[in-house]
Amino acid sequence: MINLDLDEEDRMSLEELAAHHRYEDVRRRARGLLALAKGHRTTVVSDVLGVTSQSVRNWAQWWGERGLDGILIGHKGGRPAKLTAEMLETGKNCACKQPMTLREIAAVIREAHPEAPTFSMDRLSIGLKARGLSFKRTRLSLKKNATPKPSPARAKP
Hints:
Layout: H1 8-20, H2 24-37, H3 42-49, H4 53-66, H5 68-72, H6 85-97, H7 102-112, H8 121-130
């Protein structure tokens, strides 16, 4: 059994995290630490939250070592990125050499990294914008400047 002593400020912080944090795993950790502070056993907390009792012990250890930062920095959720930093650097380097469309940049990346999984143009665009590149949408039809100008109004007799 882990006895967690929380002062009022820490308790309020954990309650706010448990209710409003962006990630579910951080909210779950905060609820677990609050339950430990109330004196519940790690096995009960783990059963209620649907995690292993070792996870609950890890949360308590992180809290003891780093406080609030200990449970916040542990978020590692989500799928790994399909576009790695190396692939985005390849795209950035080729786009800096000459103007290219996103499809052309994607083709260069696929050629340089044939083992890479398929990725969307949106992800490529976001990744390259994060590296300082900007894109302009080109017009499919050009407007001609040689349009007839309206003739000056003639004075009526």
